[in-house]
Amino acid sequence: MDKIISKLNITQNVTLITLANIPINNKSIAEIFTSLADADINVDMISQTSPLKGKINICFTLQDDVLFNAIQTLGTYKKQIPSLRIDVNSNNTKLSLYDENMKYKPGIAAKTMVILSEADIDIKMITTSEIDISYLIYASDEEKAIQSLKKIIKD
């Protein structure tokens, strides 16, 4: 198999937070992320659903060790947004695949998804850029995922 990835970065102890039923309001969304930043909480892998019936869901990741502070910070928005649901899923690993040439090679996401699928690894979240694909997986699947992806990582 072609070596199509230059670098694999692994981030352990990652929590996935989903904020569900947020009314479409850019000011509120900005306030939420500003309050997390003000609480010295670094977020990563941000993803937003398309609007449906005037509401969106936003998912993001953060390190497990700041989860308590994040929940306290996010809890303050329950009064402003009564429909807000905060779902928490901890004990995950983020795998980030990097290669400068990804932007010129179609199908890298598909190939990596096939590899993970064939290894029976559940993907909880995916974020991308032109040169990076990040997968959030169960921590228990980390070693199996790394071994599966090694066949496409350049030495």
UniProtKB/TrEMBL annotation:
Origin superkingdom: Bacteria
Keywords: Amino-acid biosynthesis, ATP-binding, Kinase, Lysine biosynthesis, Nucleotide-binding, Transferase
Keyword Transport on entry: no
UniProt xrefs under Pfam families: ACT_9 (PF22468)
Catalytic activity line of the entry: L-aspartate + ATP = 4-phospho-L-aspartate + ADP
Annotated pathway: Amino-acid biosynthesis; L-methionine biosynthesis via de novo pathway; L-homoserine from L-aspartate: step 1/3; Amino-acid biosynthesis; L-threonine biosynthesis; L-threonine from L-aspartate: step 1/5
Keyword Transferase carried by entry: yes
GO MF annotations in UniProt: aspartate kinase activity; ATP binding
Protein name: aspartate kinase
Origin species: Vallitalea guaymasensis
